[in-house]
Amino acid sequence: MVGEALRRRIVSTSGFALAPTLGVISPLIAIPAITATSGASGWAAIAIGQSIGAAVSVAVEMGWGLTGPQHVARSALVERGPLYRLSVLTKAAVFLGAVPLMLLVVVTVGSPDLAATMTAAASAAAAGLSPAWFFTGTAQPARIIYTESIPRMVAAVAASIVLLLGAPLWSYGALMLVGTTAAPIAGWWIAGRSNVDVRLGLGLVWVSMKRQALALSGRVASTFYLSLPTVVLAAVVPSVVPAFAAADRLQRMGLTVLASVPASLQNWVGTSANERVRAGRLRKAVLANAAMGLVAGGAFAILAPTVSSLLFSNQVAIEYSTSSLCAGVIALTCVSRVTGGLGLVSVGRIGWLSASAFVGAVVGPALVAFFGVSYGVDGAILGLILAETSVLAVQVAALRNGLRAATS
Description:
It is built from 15 helices and no strands. It has helices spanning about 1-60, 65-75, 75-110, 115-125, 130-135, 140-165, 170-190, 200-210, 215-225, 230-235, 240-260, 260-270, 275-310, 320-345, 350-405.
C-alpha cells in the first residue's frame, strides 16, 4: 500500500514537473530567433512587454491559482466544471478590461519597438487565463500539458520560424497570444460541458470577484517585486534592462520548473481533513523545498553565464557575480512558495499571505531601483533578494502561529 502511494506520488510529481519544463522550453525556442534578428534592443522590447504583461496576468488570474487548487481538491466532481467555467468568465472580463491599461503603460514607459512590446504584453497577460490551477487541484498534470504546454510550444516554434524568415518582431507576441488563449478554451471543454445558462454565469462574475478579492490583493501586491522590476529599471536606468531581463528570465524559467514540486503537493496537503496531519506534511514540504532551492541555486550560479551566451546569441551576457546573486533569489523563492501559497492557505491565513506580499511591494521596487542605479545589474538582483527575504520573514512568523493554533 505504501509502495503504491509512493509510486502515485512520483508519477504525479513527474507530471507536474514535465508541464512547466515544456513551458520553459517554449521561450527558449524563440529567444535565439529574437536576439539573432533584432539584437539586444529587440530583446529589451520583448522583455519590457512581458514584464508588463506578467504583472497584468496576476490580476487576470484573480487569485484562482492560490485558493483554487485546494478548493477543487475538496469539491465534488459535479461542482468542478461549473467552478472552472465561472473562473474563465471572471478572468476574461478582467483581461479585456486590462488591454487599454497595458497600452497606456507601454506608451508611457517607452520601448525600442512599441508594437512588439504591446503584443508581448498581451500574450503574457493572457497567461492569467490558464487552466493549470484547476488541473493542479484535480491532480491531472497531463491535462496541463496538452491544453497549455503543447499549444505554447507550437506557437513558439511558429514564431521563431517567421522571425527568421523576416517577419516583424511584433509577430512573436501575436503568435504567442494565439497559443496562450488556446489553453482556457481547451480547458472549458475538458472540465465538462454544462447546461447552465451563460447569462447566469456572467451574473456571478462580480460575486466571484468579491470572493477572490483577498487572494487577489496579495497576488497583485506580489507583482510589484516579482514582475515589474524590468519596467522599473526601464524607467530609471534603461541601459541595465537587457542584462537584468536576461538574468531574471533565466531564473524565472528555473523557478517555473521548480514550481512543480509545491504544485504536486497541493492535492496531498489539501485533501487531508486532519489538521495535525496537514501540519506534519507542511513541515516536510518546507524542508524539501528549502533543500531543492539550495541545490538549484548552486546549479544556476555555475551554469547561467554559459547558457546565457548561447541562448541570447552572444548579444547579452550574464556574469558569475550576477548568477550567484540569482541563486539567492531562487533559494528564497522555493521556500516562500511553500510557506505562503501552500502553508498559509492550508491554515486559513490568506490575509497574512497578502500582508507579506504588501511588504514586498513596498520595499521591492524601491530597492531594485536604488541598487540598480547605484550598482547596475547586480544591485538590482540584490534588491530582489532583500525584498524576498522580507516577504519570507512575514510568512514564516504567520505560519508558525497558524500551525501552533491548528495543532493546539
